[in-house]
């Protein structure tokens, strides 16, 4: 929408005179073309390392800039980044940060910096990573849905019951995202993202909702079975137990983040 572009242009005109400004990267709904009239304008402002480090220390890595908005109630939502940040995001960023750069565009960049190439690399994962994720998340489904959840019922442990149900559905949803090579934007977007996938079990949404709202052995078994029969996952339950231990209980030893944090 024009008022979003006008606000972005106003912001860029102001910050490019700052010697510490390296680039402005447009992200979020405005970059994707899904904005509402009242949406804010999301950007990353790329700055030198020392400026970023100072902002971290001062708890100022995100700022709402309202003076540049050209529409009532609008603002530019600014997150700070560095060139090193962009390179690290492409190498080892988690899904939410990678997804935040999908459809991103460089609104302005200071001469001498290759920002566009770095931004384009961030949302891209190689095929072997997607396969590894599918294996890890299906292992999580089995462990939470067929081990922890029955334990919770046997122990009458309400917390463990709901913890297991939520983690089963979260892992199952992310296994399907991996199968469809789709990044996880965050919990609030999971249902909406799953609804857009081409490869998903029939009735998946109802099965997931039933397990979360009425966790039981029956709802867990129905959910797990739907995933198991939908796709020939390259892992079985026996191997899945060891994979779960590797990914979670041994994370402190391997230094690799558990899959739900990827």
pLDDT < 50 stretches:
none
Please give the largest β-sheet: 5 strands, mixed
Rg result: 21 Å
Strand content: 5-15%
What is the global morphology?
elongated
- Estimate the helix proportion, in percent: 55-70%
**Overall mean pLDDT score?**
96
H/I helix tally: 13
Q: Given the helix and strand composition, which structural class is it? A: alpha+beta
Q: Distance between termini?
A: 33 Å
Short description:
By secondary structure, the protein is α+β, with helices and mostly antiparallel strands. Helix content is 56%, strand content 10%. A five-stranded mixed beta sheet has the order 3-4-2-1-5.
Question: What topology does this entry show?
Answer:
Elements: H1 2-15, E1 23-27, H2 28-32, E2 41-46, H3 49-57, E3 62-65, E4 76-81, H4 83-92, H5 95-100, E5 105-109, H6 116-121, H7 127-155, H8 158-179, H9 190-194, H10 204-213, H11 217-230, H12 237-249, H13 251-254
Parallel strand pairs: 2-4
Antiparallel strand pairs: 1-2, 1-5, 3-4
Helix pairs in contact: 7-8, 7-11, 7-12, 8-11, 10-11
Protein described:
It is a single chain. This protein has 262 residues and is of the alpha+beta class. It has a five-stranded mixed sheet. Helices cover 56% and strands 10% of the residues. It has helices at 2-15, 28-32, 49-57, 83-92, 95-100, 116-121, 127-155, 158-179, 190-194, 204-213, 217-230, 237-249, 251-254; strands at 23-27, 41-46, 62-65, 76-81, 105-109. The model has no long low-confidence stretch (mean pLDDT 96). The chain starts with a helix and ends in an 8-residue tail after the last helix.
């Amino acid at each position: 929408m024009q008022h979003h572009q006008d606000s972005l242009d106003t912001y860029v005109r102001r910050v490019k005179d700052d010697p510490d400004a390296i680039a402005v990267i447009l992200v979020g709904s405005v970059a994707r073309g899904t904005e509402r009239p009242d949406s804010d304008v999301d950007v990353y402002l790329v700055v030198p390392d020392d400026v970023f480090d100072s902002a971290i220390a001062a708890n100022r890595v995100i700022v709402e800039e309202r003076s540049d908005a050209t529409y009532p109630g609008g603002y530019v939502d600014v997150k700070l980044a560095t060139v090193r940040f962009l390179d690290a995001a492409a190498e080892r960023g988690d899904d939410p940060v990678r997804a935040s750069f999908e459809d991103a565009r460089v609104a302005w960049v200071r001469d001498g910096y290759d920002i566009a190439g770095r931004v384009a690399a961030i949302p891209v994962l190689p095929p072997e990573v997607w396969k590894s994720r599918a294996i890890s998340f299906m292992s999580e489904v089995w462990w939470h849905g067929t081990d922890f959840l029955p334990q919770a019922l046997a122990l009458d442990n309400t917390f463990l019951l709901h913890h297991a149900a939520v983690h089963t559905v979260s892992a199952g949803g992310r296994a399907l995202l991996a199968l469809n090579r789709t990044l996880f934007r965050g919990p609030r977007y999971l249902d909406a993202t799953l609804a857009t996938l081409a490869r998903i079990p029939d009735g998946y949404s109802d099965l997931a909702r039933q397990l979360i709202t009425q966790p039981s052995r029956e709802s867990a078994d129905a959910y797990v079975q739907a995933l198991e029969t939908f796709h020939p996952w390259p892992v079985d339950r026996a191997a899945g137990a060891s994979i779960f231990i590797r990914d979670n209980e041994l994370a402190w030893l391997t230094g690799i983040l558990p899959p739900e944090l990827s």
